[in-house]
């Protein structure tokens, strides 16, 4: 067991006041209340009911306690001291408190710089429960893209309870599709020359996004800024007052954002089969050659294969449809 009285900072993370604790026996449970705080188990000696779950060591057969497992794994992959440790708010005590005590007790070094604890996930306004049947499996999430699932979680602040609904997931999917269309429009701009500058819009958005993330990782605020940027740039695109150079600046900014959020997509043509790419190229050639009958035939053929094509002054644009 770990003698918590030997570690002077025990209770700092969970704001536990050691002097107010009642004297108690050692705790062999994984989870318990603050009022029960006592010496916690580090190593469990093998018992016959454990079966094959044990390791041979110099102190005999056994296995580590839950808290020790996590300290061991984090040190193996991240080292004795690392920057950020995350987890659910219900893990602050005793789990993370005990991780700190045993890790710093073993190394003599600060364990973690920052602790990020997220609030609970609920479903349709209620706590998940097997008896209520209000939980979702990975199979349920296949109605949306993985990027939409990620965006759904980013739309809520990690310190706030997150109410997951399938309607909310579909809303995130629609947002993803709008972002995809926005990026396609930017990539399709081939007009060389000066248009309305996007520099100020980008600079303002960058400052606001950094400020939002610096404010305790306020991802909902950051996403509101991204949506506002898309709205402003779309208005410039629709007015025809944007050149290729400015479009590329916006794309560069979006790619930078994606190193943080990983929800955008840029290589759309790589998703298409060679046959579909060939049809798109043939159609663009027919359109430029004013062979409109052939261009229309190829558009209908592409639609049958799940690709909708629209003609714009910047060229043809395509997207996948059901």
List the helices and strands and how they pair.
Elements: E1 43-45, E2 62-64, H1 66-78, E3 82-88, H2 92-107, E4 112-118, E5 121-123, E6 126-127, H3 138-141, H4 146-154, E7 162-164, H5 166-188, H6 199-214, H7 219-238, H8 244-261, H9 274-288, H10 292-304, E8 307-312, E9 315-320
Instruction: Walk across the major sheet and give the strand order.
Output: 6-5-7
Give the end-to-end Cα distance, rounded to a whole number of Å: 60 Å
Domain module tally: 3
Give me the strand/helix succession.
EEHEHEEEHHEHHHHHHEE
Number of separate strands: 9
Strand content: 5-15%
Q: What average pLDDT do the residues reach?
A: 89
CATH architecture title of the largest domain:
Orthogonal Bundle
| Biggest beta sheet summary | 3 strands, mixed
Gyration radius, to the nearest Å? 28 Å
Q: How many H/I helices? A: 10
> Structural class of the helices, strands and pairings?
alpha/beta
Shape: elongated
CATH domain class name of the largest domain: Mainly Alpha
Helix content: 40-55%
Contiguous uncertain segments of 5+ residues: none
């Amino acid at each position: 067991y770990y003698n918590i009285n030997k570690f002077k900072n025990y209770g700092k993370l969970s704001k536990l006041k050691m002097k107010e604790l009642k004297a108690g026996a050692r705790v062999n449970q994984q989870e318990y209340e603050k009022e029960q705080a006592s010496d916690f188990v580090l190593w469990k000696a093998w018992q016959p009911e454990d079966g094959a779950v044990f390791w041979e060591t110099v102190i005999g057969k056994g296995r580590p306690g839950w808290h020790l497992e996590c300290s061991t794994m984090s040190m193996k992959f991240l080292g004795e001291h690392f920057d950020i440790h995350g987890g659910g708010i219900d893990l602050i005590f005793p789990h993370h408190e005990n991780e700190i005590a045993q890790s710093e007790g073993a190394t003599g070094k600060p364990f973690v710089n920052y602790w990020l604890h997220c609030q609970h996930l609920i479903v349709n306004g209620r706590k998940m429960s097997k008896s209520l049947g209000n939980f979702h499996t990975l199979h349920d999430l296949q109605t949306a893209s993985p990027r939409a699932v990620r965006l759904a979680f980013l739309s809520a602040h990690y310190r706030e309870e997150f109410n997951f609904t399938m309607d909310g997931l579909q809303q995130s999917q629609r947002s993803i599709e709008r972002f995809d269309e926005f990026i396609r429009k930017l990539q399709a701009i081939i007009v060389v020359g000066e248009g309305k500058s996007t520099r100020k819009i980008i600079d303002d958005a960058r400052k606001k996004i950094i400020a939002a993330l610096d404010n305790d990782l306020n991802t909902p605020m950051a996403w509101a800024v991204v949506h506002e940027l898309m709205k402003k740039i779309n208005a410039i695109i629709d007015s025809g007052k944007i050149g290729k150079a400015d479009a590329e600046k916006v794309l560069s900014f979006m790619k930078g954002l994606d190193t943080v959020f990983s929800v955008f997509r840029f290589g759309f043509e790589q998703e298409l089969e060679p046959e579909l790419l060939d049809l798109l190229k043939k159609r663009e050639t027919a359109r430029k050659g004013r062979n409109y009958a052939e261009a229309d035939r190829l558009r209908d053929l592409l639609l049958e294969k799940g690709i909708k094509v629209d003609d714009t002054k910047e060229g043809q644009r395509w997207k996948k449809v059901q």
